[in-house]
Design a protein that fits this description.
single chain, 249 residues, alpha/beta, Rossmann fold, 7-stranded parallel sheet, 7 helices, 43% helix, globular, oxidoreductase
Length: 249
């Protein structure tokens, strides 16, 4: 199936590798134009634009924890594509695996700044852009994690940030709907996805815990994001979409 997102413009943070790139591939396939951001992987951004075509894709270097960078991304998006239909807050980092009693405040703050404050700043900028350029309509998708549903014992900072993203999504979704603003917000909760984040020597052990019997693919997250970005999901407001191969079933 194609053209489910034809004519739509989407910002995908962390969109040049891993899950973000999988989402971008699905969006390009379905006819969307995409603005991809990353803070450090500039070369990946250039490669993605070359692959998708500069008429369909744009890369902007961005630190999602900085409000000024969000304005830069919005300005570049509107300048090239005239509007914003979909915002996918995908950029994020993991914790360092330290017990909370050994964790420096600076390490905690970095995870919260990127994973949670980055979502807040993105939603704020995205909603305002949709109001200004798209008749106050659109879709915001926050890529949380199963760690936002069930705490990970050695990742208190990551779990807190992803749980915060989940509840932020629900609160803003309800607020927009109750005010009659046609911008819907939902969260997506990936389980184990086959990216560079998963250690190669741990994959066999991890797979044994997954009922589906294999790791997920970045495109598996991309497909649910296609649905949530399309007009098919008009009644999906404040939802939580778990994609984990049955681990939380």
């Amino acid at each position: 199936m194609t053209d489910r997102l034809k004519g739509k413009v989407a910002i995908i943070t962390g969109g040049v590798a891993g899950i973000g790139l999988g989402i971008a591939e699905c969006y390009i396939r379905e006819g969307a134009n995409v603005v991809l951001t990353a803070n450090h992987n500039v070369e990946g951004g250039k490669k993605a634009v070359a692959r998708f075509g500069d008429d369909r894709a744009l890369f902007v270097q961005q630190d999602v924890s900085q409000e000024a960078d969000w304005q830069k991304v919005i300005d570049a998006t509107v300048s090239k594509f005239d509007k914003l239909d979909v915002l996918i807050n995908n950029a994020g980092i993991g914790g360092d695996g330290k017990p909370i009693e050994d964790k420096p405040l600076t390490d905690w703050q970095k995870v919260i700044d990127i994973n949670l404050t980055g979502n807040f700043l993105g939603m704020k900028a995205g909603i305002n852009a949709m109001k200004e350029t798209n008749h106050a309509t659109g879709s915001i998708i926050n890529v949380s994690s199963v760690a936002g549903l069930v705490g990970l014992p050695m990742a208190p900072d990551y779990s807190a940030s992803k749980g915060g993203s989940r509840m932020l999504s629900r609160a803003v979704a309800a607020s927009l709907a109750r005010r009659g603003i046609k911008i819907r917000v939902n969260s997506v909760h990936p389980g184990w996805i086959d990216t560079n984040i998963v250690p190669e020597d741990a994959k066999k052990q991890i797979i044994q815990t997954i009922p589906a019997g294999h790791l997920g693919k970045p495109q598996d997250i991309g497909e649910i994001c296609v649905y949530l970005g399309s007009d098919e999901s008009q009644y999906a407001i404040g939802g939580e979409f778990t994609v984990d191969g049955g681990v939380r079933a």
